[in-house]
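User: Please predict the structure of the protein below. I'd like the answer in structure-token form so I can feed it into my own downstream comparison script.

Assistant: Understood. Taking the following sequence of 290 residues as input:
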Amino acid sequence: MREIVVISGKGGTGKTTVSAAFAHLAENKVICDLDVDAPDLHILLDPSPQETHAFVSGHKAVIRRDACLGCGKCAALCAFDAIALHKEGYAVDPLRCEGCGVCAHLCPAGAIDLEEPHCGDWYKSDTRFGPMVHALLFPGQENSGKLVSLLKAEARALAREQNLDTILCDGSPGVGCPVISSLSGASLAVGVVEPTPSGRHDFLRVADLCRHFRVPVAVIINKADLNPEEADAIARECEQRGDVLLGRLPFDPVVTRAMVARKALTEFDNPVGNRLKDMWSALQKLNVRR
């Protein structure tokens, strides 16, 4: 099967808009939203969850007050200042705790446990475009790269189970751990870039990341008509790097109207949606490994 991941070097480039359109156009696919910190593909696809699972990851220290001697050794040893004395006794601040385990291992009374926290939830859902795997981390939680890897594994299993040949992923923005996990095993990365100096800089960083992992890149320049000179510069960069330029999208208020209506741009007739249809057809002709 092929795995297509829509990426961007930064947030707000139009990545989810493109992902929703491709999800509408693709056949025999599983849709996967890998932006687990701030997902929004569900807003357009309106998924109906069929399965809900807790995502448990990492460790947090918890002091059992009935066993605590009140010696304060744990607070003195904590490198993150996560343990403090309160009226009720010593307690751990879960937002500061890094789960290193020093306090639990060195507590003379053995009064500290390391618990796996509930960091968020992930879902298997049905949408009008087909099955979808997605998740949401709770505010302030980490390990989003691990959750992304879990979602990709579940999407692959679902594709095999239903004999589907494409996994279409709305990737995470940036170049951090979630993006690296998003690109793992990908057949193709579709980069959505805005025609600004900062947009080009951020995109080139994620394109270099794709090259490091030997993932081919196809590029869509969004709002290209707002800065034609910068759009031309990005097109030249693509040619020099050997990346495929799928095309350019204009700035058009129809994008906002589609968002408000919670529809993909390709679900009704409009110039931007028609261009996305052409881009999807061009993508289909690329020699993408499976």
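That's the full token string. The CA atoms of residues 116 and 288 lie 40 Å apart.
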